[in-house]
Amino acid sequence: AQTVTQSQPEMSVQEAETVTLSCTYDTSENNYYLFWYKQPPSRQMILVIRQEAYKQQNATENRFSVNFQKAAKSFSLKISDSQLGDTAMYFCAFIENFGGSNYKLTFGKGTLLTVNP
Amino acid sequence: DAGITQSPRHKVTETGTPVTLRCHQTENHRYMYWYRQDPGHGLRLIHYSYGVKDTDKGEVSDGYSVSRSKTEDFLLTLESATSSQTSVYFCAISDREGSGTNEKLFFGSGTQLSVL
Questions:
Q1: Contacts of residue A103 in chain B, CB cutoff 8 Å?
Q2: What CATH number has the domain bearing residue A34?
Q3: pLDDT tens digits for B28-48?
Q4: A33 near B CB under 8 A
Q5: What mean pLDDT is reported for chain B?
Q6: What CATH code is assigned to B4-115?
């Protein structure tokens, strides 16, 4: 079974500083996608960043970047220059099995990030 | 933003009553999903659909059924609601097509369901 583990239930960071959220996953597949989603208090699920497993280069989106370590099955999210609007629950998610109908996204339990002024 | 709408946004019901949540998309995407979100559990998959009338169970499917009679609508039914089904329910759709080179999920705004 697919599993995604976020070992940090809560984290905090000072505004303008950098923070890293960790995520590990388990799979026997070689081809898959990894995602980080952000859920602010509005409850909306917002895609932050996406990584294809076949790409060695780490994905980046403005202040957000990932450290993808395929052999270690690790997928951490780095937020640089943290802003108050980054305060949210962050979910790591994983999807595999492109060839069949069993195509499911599995989520971690989330990390609540608070950015302090 | 992807055209995905959940209804209702909020619902309060009593134990033992049937409840149906609706997810409607205007994107013509093949894959649709129902998740529930609970504190300490993240999002857990209830059921998903990979085409009209093609559905399968997720990890927390007991007490839920789904139907997809047309591409744009995916219904989640609680036949007899229980207090343990109090949760926030999210629908998601996937734009996966063919080679899967553009994997992305879009989420609805969620339905807060309270079973008293």
A1: 31, 48, 50, 94, 96
A2: 2.60.40.10
A3: 988 899 999 998 888 999 999
A4: yes
A5: 91
A6: 2.60.40.10
